[in-house]
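Structure tokens please, single chain.
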Amino acid sequence: MKLCSNLSSPVIPGEYHKEKNHIIGYLRVDHRRVHNLYILRFVICETMNFVIVIINMSILNGIFDNFWMRYFPVVSSLFSTDGESFSNLSTELFPKLAKCIYYDFGPSGSQQTHDALCLLSLNILNDKIFAFLYVWFSLLVVVSICNLIIRIIILITPCIRLKMIRSLAKSSVPLTKNQLELVLLGDHIGDWFILYLLGRNLNPFVFREILDDLASNAKRSNEEVN
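Here you go.
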């Protein structure tokens, strides 16, 4: 993240205070509540990842009629390390041998027909490629669904969001709930998400100092208003 450049190193650089004040200035009260569109786009991208996987699986299912049901026994046999069973089952979709008919002309000029068994060597590779794709797409679906579920739980549960921010700030004295609420100024998911990304990319001790300064600034602003 450009916003936290020069502050992610474990060694504090010479322009530490300048960079830290730059972040604090960006996250001041008058810049709050403008980041909801950012997290909305982020969640849309994560959702699109899942949708694209489903579309790809549907296309594959259309090309190979009922691929995901028919190829399941093939992949299962692969995990059971039964090579012979894998070869036999995969032949249904990717036959290794096929009847070939050749035409040529005999000595008198009449057409002759020859039939033979042809080895389809490319299908020896195809059955393994599609077994890999089967496993890969299955993993992508599981990971995408879990990621979306976790994201939804985080977005609808304020206490989890507070704990996530607190876990990123290293200090002998843990952040209080009141400090975190001052920093976040209520239930604004976009502001929380920006802070969370900063915490993941900053030196944890620097991040803690930034949170302390933001809490102090927010407290002073509240006192001036009151």
